[in-house]
Amino acid sequence: MATEGISLDYEALDSWTLEESIGAIIDSNRRAVDAVARVAPELAKAAEGIRDRLAKGGRLIYLGAGTSGRLAMQDAAELPPTFGFERTVNLLAGGSDASRQAKEDAEDDEEEAITGIREAGVTEQDAVIGIAASGNTPYTIAGIREARNRGAFTVALANNADAPLLKVADVGVVLATGPEVLAGSTRLAAGTAQKIALNALSTSVLASLGGAYKNLMVGMRPKNKKLRERAVSIVSHGAEVEPEEARAALEASHWQMREAIVMLKASVDLAEAQDRLARHQNRVREALKEKL
Questions:
Q1: Within this chain, do residues 183 and 274 fall inside the same structural domain, yes or no?
Q2: Chain centroid to CA 250: how far?
Q3: Which of 32, 39, 99, 225 is the most exposed place for a label (fewest CB within 10 A)?
Q4: Could you tell me if 177 and 231 lie in one domain?
């Protein structure tokens, strides 16, 4: 496996200055960006399948072990505050305790993954993303296989070509980052590539499903002072009004940015804004095209 390779380029790592070590790690992360860029078409195919399931009310389920599982958990945790999207499930080998303390032995537990998929009630409505740097992790392979057997749309992210995980998913994506600066430590370039891929998938899908208007986070939850000020800026920009007018619309809409923008741009009341958004699955752009 390339991720387990030992590169002679880094064999003097322990004798380098701190600046030299940092430079090598930064360079390896540039390689991670390139690895993701090479598979943009495959990621787009995966995103299309995920969007189809979520558009019909399905859930986005993340599955992984170790670093990969913790990166998946981080992506899932950011979706409610960023997009207001709640329909996520995160299955991490070793359970929630493994988010704070590594449990390497848990990644071999196939039965835990199968049980997790079954207890989550995964169906053909759902989309499941399995992540494993090696692509050989028994937990992740078993979970993706079970999810696919139950009709879910499945995506696999791995950092080694021809990995078994890639073969059991509907769409397999190879993030070929190669050997790490610290041999075998896939929290480095491999982890960076995984985070970029997860960000790309979740952001592109949820933005297209109404989580964004233009490139504005209209699904964000403005629950503190900083975020309320951000919401004012978003609505002011999106509706092309002064901040004071944006704030008034936000207060009238109970700090719902989509509704505030539709109210301002379409000159309608809150009830009409809500009705329009409901008819257009929360897509502000489509709601604004509707004539009175």
A1: no
A2: 28
A3: 225
A4: no
Catalytic residue list contains 112: no
Stated as kind and residue range, the H or E segment containing 154 is strand 153-158
Q: Is residue 49, in this structure, part of any structural domain at all?
A: yes
The secondary structure of residue 107, as a DSSP letter, is: G
Q: Which residue is catalytic, options 107, 112, 146, 259?
A: 107
Given the residues 78, 110, 245, 290, the one annotated as active site: 78
Q: Are the C-beta atoms of 175 and 135 separated by less than 8 Å?
A: no
Distance from the Cα of residue 194 to its chain's centroid: 10
Q: Are residues 99 and 190 in the same domain?
A: yes
Bridge partners of residue 174, in order along the sequence:
158
Contact indicator for 55, 209 with CB cutoff of 8 Å: yes
**What letter represents residue 235's amino acid?**
V
| Number of folded domains that form the chain | 2
User: Cα(159)–Cα(172) distance, rounded to whole angstroms?
Assistant: 11
For the entire predicted model, the pTM comes to 0.91
Backbone angles phi, psi at 286, to 5 degrees: -70, -40
Model confidence at 100: pLDDT above 60: no
Say if 220 falls within a structural domain.
no
Per-residue pLDDT tens over the stretch 211-260: 999 999 999 999 999 999 999 999 999 999 999 999 999 999 999 999 99
Q: Reduced to 3 states, what is the DSSP secondary structure of residue 155?
A: strand
Q: Is 272 a catalytic residue?
A: no
> Quick check: 101 pLDDT over 90?
no
Domain check: are 12 and 70 in the same one? yes
